[in-house]
Design a protein that fits this description.
By secondary structure, the protein is mostly helical. It has helices spanning 2-26, 32-50.
């Protein structure tokens, strides 16, 4: 049971961020150009953090 709780605890923040992006896109707060910038930022920092 502890494994399932650990998996759920790790997935909740990911699901929250996905939901925020989904709702921001539906409300028109993000434009296609914004998504390219966000993708570049996420990949830049995730690769940098993964190499340390």
């Amino acid at each position: 049971m502890q494994i399932i709780e650990s998996i759920i605890a790790a997935l909740i923040p990911v699901a929250f961020i996905i939901a925020l992006g989904y709702f921001a896109g539906n409300q028109g707060r993000l434009k296609p150009d914004d998504s390219l910038l966000l993708t570049k930022l996420v990949l830049t920092y995730s690769v940098a953090c993964g190499t340390e």
